[in-house]
Amino acid sequence: MPRWSAFFFAPALSTLVLAVSSVTVGQSSAPIVVQTKPANAPADSSGAKPAGAAEEPSAPKLKPADLEKRPQLNEGTKMQLIQVIQSEFVHARKYFPLGDKSIVIGPDGDIKPGDARLYQMAQINGAAAKIGDKVQITNILFHEKSIYVEINGGPKKKSKWYNHIQLSVGGAGNSGDPNQAQPTGAAMTLEFKQHVPEMNGAEMKLLLGPVLDFSVKTAAEVYVDTLPPKIKAAIKAHEVLVGMNRDMVIMAKERTQQKTREKDDKGEEYEEWLYGAPPHDVVFVRFKGDEVTQVKTAKITGEMVVKTEKEVDVKDGVATLAALKASDAPEDLKNQPPPAEQPTHRPTLKRPDEQPDPAVVIRIPSSSSQPGQHPEEPEWGKSKSDEKQPPSPDPQKPPQ
Predict the structure, then answer these.
(1) What pLDDT score was predicted for residue 105?
(2) Pseudo-torsion of CA 93, 94, 96, 100, nearest 10°?
(3) Residue 189 in contact with residue 144, Cβ under 8 Å?
(4) Would the CA dihedral through 373, 378, 379, 381 be positive or negative?
(5) H or E segment and range at residue 305
(6) What is the SS3 assignment for 207?
(7) pLDDT score at 25
(8) What is d(CA 342, CA 261) in angstroms, rounded to the nearest whole number?
(9) Mean pLDDT in order along the chain per 10 residues (400 residues)
């Protein structure tokens, strides 16, 4: 009987010991619980949540300085973080220049260098990832006061061991394929003031949140989240603002199958994208280079709305509001003056540089004739010279 009782009570005792040990370990590095509440949610004096109130999820932020009071990160937690973060596919919130590792998230959450500098570096050296691109975390290194994270293979030139072998025949050597030693990714650094503290995988994702997006979103959603609220609202409403670039227009209207390329009155080339077809509204988006310079909307009622005033300013990959109206609806043009009438040109088959033919004489009616009336033609058998001369006097009739 004692043997059977020991057989049944041994598993229960081991389970109790494991539960107590897990509670003890959890108290040493308890994660930060971030509770979010919408700003417009009403609350009573007791602090209770009103019935039927829906909370809108917001993106909580966490700074490295918020973890200063925790103990230093141990080896066991390092292995857990590597298992959770490494090989994860995420979306980029910043431009990552190819082969660069200068992006630093400071202890206070500030990011260096700025967006404009990262865009310029990506244009010069190439981009390992643009805003909204899907990237993969390929390596994580823990230092005393920082965490080093690589994406898409990192910024170092990596090559195989056999690429360093040279075979010389008659003085000529073969150093292997030079394309094997080119960088394919970039890196960033997460800095702390004193030491790298204890944290879990969810907290590390929040710390890297300003640069990498771990949520399940599409590339378009990640790109739109980085824009100002007015531009974000216009894209979600499928509206095009003057000053947008091609990426923003594609986010708002998707790609079009109808494009035309022409020249304006000044001889400058432009490209026009057409959206819609009658009996619905038709939108003409005109590009000069990568910038929208005109948005023309032909409405069902026959009204033509033309916008040429710059509303969005995109400089160094950063979008700002240039002259957006105070109205929440970017297409609200009721208070704006009517667009100036464009001069109309008669259709012709002549080229712009072709001179008129001197053999062709164009008769212009006199100013005395009213519009819509044709000049009087002489009667049959008479000429115009006969009509202009006064009638000859009758010789039998005495003069008066």
Answers:
(1) 95
(2) -120
(3) no
(4) negative
(5) strand 304-307
(6) helix
(7) 39
(8) 19
(9) 52 49 42 40 42 41 89 92 90 93 93 92 91 92 95 78 61 52 88 93 92 83 81 88 88 86 89 89 91 91 89 72 44 49 66 72 54 56 56 56
Contacts 24+ apart (CB under 8 A), 144-147: 144/195, 144/196, 145/191, 145/192, 145/193, 145/194, 145/195, 145/196, 146/189, 146/190, 146/191, 146/192, 146/196, 147/189, 147/190, 147/196, 147/204
Phi, psi of 274 (to 5 degrees): -110, 130
- Which residue is it, tokens 């077809």? 277
Name which of 323, 73, 373, 316 is nearest 201 in CA terms. 73
Name 151's bridge partners: 137, 186
Tokens 């990160």 belong to which residue? 73
For helices 246-253 and 229-236, angle between their N-to-C axes, nearest 10 degrees: 50
Pairing state of beta strands 89-92 and 111-112? unpaired
186-191 and 146-151 beta bridge pairing:
antiparallel
pLDDT at position 329: 41
For residue 246, give the amino acid letter.
Answer: R
Residue 287's nearest CA partner among 238, 330, 253 is 253
